[in-house]
Amino acid sequence: MPTNTWYAHDLDTVRDMLCACIGPKWGDAPEEKLEEIRQSRYAQGKRLAHLLKINDSHTVLDFGSGCGFVTRAFCEKAAKVHCVDLNPKFLDFTRNELSSFPQTEFHRIEYASIPQVADESIDIVISTAVFIHFLYYDFLFNLIELNRVLRTGGILYFSMLDADAIDLHNPAAIQNHISIYKDSVRGDGFMLQPSSLTSIKKLAPQLGFELINTNHIGAGENVAEVTLRKTGAPDLPEWLRDCI
Ligand SMILES: C[S@@+](CC[C@H](N)C(=O)[O-])C[C@H]1O[C@@H](n2cnc3c(N)ncnc32)[C@H](O)[C@@H]1O
Fold first, then answer.
1. Contact residues of ligand 1, CB 6 A cut-off
2. What's the whole-model pTM score?
3. Residue 191 Cα, ligand 1 centroid: separation in angstroms?
4. 176 C-alpha to center of ligand 1: Å?
5. Model confidence pLDDT, tens digit, residues 195-225
6. Can you tell me the distance from the alpha carbon of 163 to that of 146, in angstroms, rounded to the nearest whole number?
7. Where are the domains of the chain?
8. Which one of 8, 28, 66, 218 has the minimum C-beta count within 10 Å?
């Protein structure tokens, strides 16, 4: 798997899962703050459901749904919700978390491939705190697959760590990870991966998306929220079609 090997590891306890899902900011025993964490992520989901105007005509796909805390807000509004994740332990947790929403489906996926979801069947894809781990190549392969599942005119929202916005004197989002990175073997850690928003703005139209909005948030404003609309199929050069 190209990146995020960390997420493919066994997550044996709720503590493991919360640490993976929300990082170090809730301390060493996040399971003791489960309800607070749940409510905090749910509030994020409510904000996005409002921003993206999710309603009962929509089919929504939460890409990298983690513990399902954010997803709950989409389940409350949408006709149907697909939860997609690499790690089956997260999906088991989320299945339980969202058991009161029968219109929700759960799919374990391999890297950048969601065969369980039909072409052009999704109105809105939302991915919070997932693309923050992605290299440019991960953006490429995942945006191609998400273009496939979205209907034309459908919306893709994701948050990413914008390398263009990082200032070493105001490094809020990356500070913790720089020391972890220094002591890790490349790729073995729980790594944030800053990517240039400028490069993604150039990539998106080549993959059949138009840019609707970008917005910088978080401490240091290093995290970019990106909203794209699908305009059509990707315009891939021959060499690239041969290698995907
Ligand atoms: C930091 S958690 C975020 C979870 C949730 N979206 C939230 O905001 O609370 C990242 C999630 O994305 C999943 N993930 C990481 N890389 C992925 C990939 N390439 N494709 C799909 N899911 C991925 C992880 O297994 C994990 O559940």
1. 4, 7, 21, 41, 63-66, 69-70, 85-87, 90, 109, 111, 128-130, 133
2. 0.94
3. 12
4. 19
5. 999 999 999 999 999 999 999 998 778 999 9
6. 23
7. 45-241
8. 28
